[in-house]
Write a structure and sequence with these properties.
- This protein has helices at 3-14, 16-22, 34-49, 70-73, 75-99, 101-112, 117-124, 131-145.
- The protein is mainly α.
- It has one domain (3-54, 69-145).
- Helix 3 (34-49) packs across helix 8 and helix 6 (101-112) runs antiparallel to helix 7 (117-124).
- The protein starts with a helix and ends in a 34-residue tail after the last helix.
Length: 179
Amino acid sequence: MSSDEISTETIAAESPLLRLFLGKSTGGKAYIDHLQFRAGEKLRSDFERSHLMQRTTSVYSESAGSGGRHWQQSDNSIAKLNDNAIAARQRLQQAFEAVGPELSGILYQVCCVASGFEHAEKILALPVRSGKAVLALGLTRLARHYGLIKIHRPEKHASISHWAIDDYRPAIQPPAHQP
């Protein structure tokens, strides 16, 4: 095995979203397409930039008073970090609002927290083996929010068609009076 194969396998083992993108269903088709994958990765990126996840490892970088680089200690870098985190939190909130409360839970569990499908289904009280389908719906809606999937809108001056005869006019009936 090459180092590229090992790193891809390692990443796929850690990312449920990448496993869906690389995995194939019984028909040989991927569970999610590249636009859905990009939308999920963008959501994950915003989540990581928002600093909402608790740190689980130690940081061994130089402390503020140890004479490290100036940019690590400056007030401007701290303000920029905070501004970037706030902007990421706003983008995250907008994405979850666009998707809606019904689909945002599965997106949070799988894309942001990297929970497995069984765990996400259990937490969200979804039927067994429905996580992939619900996630695919959420990722499609998320891709539409990010502008990755274009919505077809008819031109403003396009004619409106109907199934009736060309000169058909519906009759409007007055409301019936109730005694």
